[in-house]
Specification:
Length: about 350
């Protein structure tokens, strides 16, 4: 570990100590990898030097997993660029290759935590396809999918946004908020994907239907058809959950490397009317256990440790704060807002 000035700090360096702002608020946690965006933020916060870890980088993703992941992202990227130019791709061959890759990745013990390390802000659309495939495959396994059904789900997850290849790039990559007219264009991607995939996999195929139905919501407020759950495939509802989860965790990637309580709590909230509660329940049940024993910050600023997770309300655990036990099932005015590194 050494202290270096901001002018010597390069993207890729890993913080060895947390960075605090002038008010004492935590800005960046130790272990955080510096990005170009962080470099700009650090100088705007008036910080002139930081401690960096000059040993091996902290995150460790198995090399084989990294290779498979980037291979999968590369394949979907090439396919979507071909489609964008107006040519056709062999979506059936692409789907089975991606399905195999996704199942291999989902079988890794660190699948979910490694996913958070592999994501990159660049090429979000392509990473998102593979990430959703992995999350959907994991959730599918936890819901009892296996064999061909699981492979179909993995393929459907990886290809769910294929229709985006036919959207104008200036809308797809627009950094700011979309206008209502632009959003109407984005809303066509399930139909475009469905059309492309029906041509390859046949009408009514799981892959084509998931592309069409992954933005439907359980209260009928989704698009493009405003369908209710009875009219959508379970695979579509799984991919819908994976899509929302991945979008939320990706937005948080530069703030925290693990799925946070706030993301999981939001998923649970969405299970009332938007996402299939059975799908969210199965996912939370498996994912939330990472939080056992973690140090967390409550919405009143207190820091404590998660000591018990309620089965029925996994995002409202009992937190030990000093000598007190704060049960968030009882203290509805409080919530977990963040995870805090060990001292
Ligand atoms: Fe989508």
């Amino acid at each position: 570990m050494r202290r270096i000035s901001l002018s010597d700090l390069h993207p890729g360096s890993v913080l060895a100590k947390p960075v605090y702002g002038a008010s004492g608020a935590l800005r960046l946690n130790q272990g955080k990898q510096i990005t170009r965006q962080f470099l700009d933020s650090l100088s705007s916060w008036g910080i002139h030097s930081v401690y960096v870890d000059d040993g091996a980088p902290l995150p460790v993703v198995p090399e084989a997993m990294k290779a498979t992941y980037y291979e999968a992202v590369g394949r979907i990227k090439v396919a979507m660029e071909i489609l964008r130019r107006g040519s056709l791709v062999d979506a059936a061959a692409l789907g089975s290759q991606l399905g195999e890759f996704v199942l291999q990745l989902a079988a890794e013990p660190c699948a979910l935590s490694c996913l958070h390390l592999l994501r990159e802000r660049d090429d979000y659309t392509f990473h998102h396809c593979i990430d959703v495939g992995i999350v959907a495959a994991l959730a599918g396994k936890w819901l009892g999918f296996s064999g061909t059904d699981l492979l179909q789900l993995a393929m459907a997850g990886a290809l769910h946004d294929l229709g985006k290849a036919r959207l104008p790039l200036e809308i797809l990559n627009k950094p700011g908020r979309l206008t209502p007219e632009e959003f109407d264009v984005v809303k066509t991607h399930p139909l475009l994907g469905h059309e492309l995939l029906t041509a390859e996999f046949g009408p009514g195929s799981v892959v084509a239907r998931v592309a069409l139905e992954h933005h439907e919501r359980t209260d009928g407020s989704g698009y493009p058809q405003g369908l209710r759950p009875a009219d959508t495939l379970l695979a579509s509802r799984i991919v819908a959950m994976a899509d929302v989860y991945d979008a939320m965790t990706s937005r948080r990637i530069y703030r925290d490397r693990s799925p946070e309580f706030a993301v999981l709590a939001q998923l649970q909230e969405d299970s009332f009317g938007l996402l299939d509660p059975r799908v969210v329940g199965a996912f939370l049940e498996h994912v939330i256990h990472y939080a056992h024993g973690r140090r967390v910050r409550l919405s009143n600023g207190q820091i404590g440790r998660v000591v018990f997770i309620h089965e029925m309300a996994p995002t409202r655990p009992i937190v030990e704060v000093g000598v007190d036990l704060v049960d968030l099932m009882v203290r509805k005015d409080l919530s977990v807002v963040d995870e805090v590194d060990e001292e």
